[in-house]
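so i finally got all the pieces together for this one. its two components total, 719 residues if u count the protein bits. some of the lines might not be protein, just check the labels. i wanna see the whole assembly predicted at once instead of chain by chain like last time, that was a mess tbh
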Amino acid sequence: MRKLSILLVLALICAALSGCGQGGTSSATATVRFLNFKPEIASVYEEIARAYEEETGVKVVVETAAANTYESTLTAKMATSEAPTIFQVNGPLGYANWKDFCKDLSQSQITDIITDDNLLLKTQEGVFGIPYVVEGYGIIYNDEIMRKFFALPDKKTDVASVEEITSFDKLKEVVEEMSQKKKELGIEGVFASTSLKPGEDWRWQTHLMNLPVHYEFKKNDIDLSTDETSNFKFEFNRNYKNIFDLYLNNSVTDKKMLGAKITGDSMAEFALGRCAMVQNGNWGYSQIKEVGGNKVREEDVKMMPVYIGIEDETEGLCIGTENYLCINKRADENTQKAAEDFLYWLFSSETGKRYVNEGLGFITPFNTFAVDEVPDDPLAREVVRWMNREGVDTIPWDFTIFPSQVFKNNLGSNLLQYAQGTKNWDTVVDETVRDWKSESNK
Amino acid sequence: MKKYAPVFLLPLTLAFTVFFVIPFLGGLILSFTEFTTVDNAHFIGFDNYIKAFSGDSGFLNALWFTVKFTVVSVVTVNVLAFLLALLLTKPLKGVNLFRTVFFLPNLIGGIVLGYIWNVIINGVLSYFGVDITFSANYGFWGLVLLMNWQMIGYMMIIYIAGLQSVDRGLVEAAYIDGANARSALWHVTIPSLMPSVTICTFLTLTNSFKLFDQNLALTGGAPGKQTSMLALDIYDTFYGRIGWQGVGQAKAVVFFVIVALIALVQLYFTRSREVEV
C-alpha cells in the first residue's frame, strides 16, 4: 500500500511538472498581439486582423481592454508569456511607466510617414511612441437651436450668428440671453450637465484645464520638455473660473446636483435637444448618434473653440493626441518586425487606410492619407475644418504633461466641491498649485 | 489509514501552494521593489513602506475611515441580525417567507448593490439639494446602510440556526427558577449562542475591513478620497498612480497583517467566552 501511495504522489508531481513545462516552447512564426484601447471599435480591429492575415499570412491577435481598465489589463498581460507586442501609452507620463518595454522606433518605417515630427513621443534617446489618431475638442453646439435663437424677434444681443461668437464676452452674452429665453428655445439649459462624478470629470480637470495651462506656459516661455513645468502658478485661474461658472450657471442641471452626472448623461441631453451646447471632442459623435430618440440632425452638430478670454481672436480647437502606439522590445525580433510591418500596412496600404477611415473613424497624423481621406462624421469634419482654418492657432494638448492622475483627480474633486458651494475658489486655486508642485516632484 | 494521508492531502496542498503561498510570497517580495510588471522589479528596500505611511499617500486616512466603518457596522449588523433572528424564531405567520426576503440582498453582487444604493441615496438626498458626494458623512452612513442591508440577512440565518439549537430544557429550567424573559435571554440563550456570535463577528469584521466593490460603486472615495477604504486605496495606489505599484503592494502587505491580527485577536476573545453545555 505504501508503494502505491508513493507511486500516486509521483504521478501527480509528474503531471504537475509537465503541465508547467509546456508553456516554454514558442512557435517559430511570429504572432502579433495587439492590446486595443478602444472597446467601441474592437470589432473593426478584428476585421482588420483577418484581412491582414489573408493578405500576408501573419497572424494578428487583437485583445481589448474594457473601458477604463487599460493600465490594469496591460500590467497583467505584460507579465504573461502572451504579452502584447503592440500596446499604447497616453503620453510622457504613460511612457515613464512603460519605458522598460518601449522599443526605439526612430529607425522604423512608420516614423517616416508622420506629418509632423513634433507629434511623436520622443526623448533624447529615441522615438518610443507613434500617435495614430488626432482628436480635437471644443464646445459642440446644436446649430438648429442656435439659428432659432438668432432668429428670435426680441433678441437683445448684437451678435447675429454663431460665426460672430469669437470671444468669451460674446459667448457669455449669447449664453446668458439664451438661458433667459430657454422656454422659447425649447431647451432646459444652454449647456449640458457639467459631469463631475469621480472618474467622469476629465472634461474639466483635463480638457478645460488645458487652456489656462497652455497659455501660462506660453506666456512665460516655458520649455515643456524640461522640469521647468513644475513651476505652475495657475495665473489664468480667473479665466478658468469664468468659463466654468458659465457652464455651471446655464446648465440643464442644478450645480449642486452634479456629483452623480456622467459624461454619457451630458451627451444624451445634447442628443435629445435638451440643451444647445456641450464641451467635448469629436469622439463624442458616436455617443450622440447612439442615443435613442436622438433629435439632433447630423448637419447641425458643429464645434467651436472654448473661449476663455485670453487670446480669443486667434484661438482654435484643442487638437492633439494622447494615444501612442508602442512596440514591446521584450518580444522576439521576428515579432517586433512583424508588428512594425502590420502598423505600416494599416496606415499606408489602400486596404488598411480604408479600414482606418471607414471603420475606425480616425483622423490620422500620417502623410499617406490624402486631404479628402477623412472619416465621415460631422465632428471629425469640424476638427479638420478648424485645423485648416486661416488665422487661428490650434491649441496643443498640453495636458499630457500634467504631473499625474492624482493631480487631475484632486482637481476634479475640488471642482465638484466648488460647484456644490463647499469650497471657495481661492482654496481650489491654492490646492491646485500645491498639488501640481508636489506631484511634479515625485 | 494514516498512510493514505499524503494522497488525499497532496492535491489541496499543491493547489494551496501554487495559488496562495507562492503568489503571497511573490507579493511580499514585490513590496520591497519598484516595478511595472512582476518581472521587471528592482529592489529598493523599505522605501515603499515609508511612502505608504507618508502624509499624502492617503493610507492612514483610509485606515481610520475603515476602522470607524468597521466598528459601526459590526455592531449594527450583529445587533439587528440578532433581533431579527429572535423575531423570526417566534411562531409567526409567514416566517419562512420573511427569512427568505431578508436573506435575498446577500445574493446580489457588491458592485450592483453599490450602484443601486447610489441611485437610491442620491434620489433621497436630491430632495435636500445635495448628493452623496457632498460630505464624507453621507458616504459613511451610506456605506453602513448598504453593509447592513446586505449582511443582516446572512447573519440572521446563522443566528436562527444557533437559536434553534439552544437547549429548550435550559430555558425552561431558568423560567422555573423564576427568571423573566430578559434574564433568560441574557443569561441562558446568549451564552449558548456564543459560537454563532464568534462566526458572525468574524465574518462581519473581516468583510467590513476588506470591503471593496460596494465602496467603489457607492462613493468611489468621493468627496476627494475621504471615503476611500483600505482596499480601494490600495487599488487606486496600484493602478491609479504611475510608479507607485510598489507602494500599493506595500500597503497590501500591511493590510494583510492588520486583517490577520484583528481576526486572530477577535477569534481568541469570542472563543474564550463560548460555553460548553
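Chain B has one domain: 62-272.
The domain at 62-272 of chain B is CATH 1.10.3720.10 (MetI-like fold).
anyway lmk what u think
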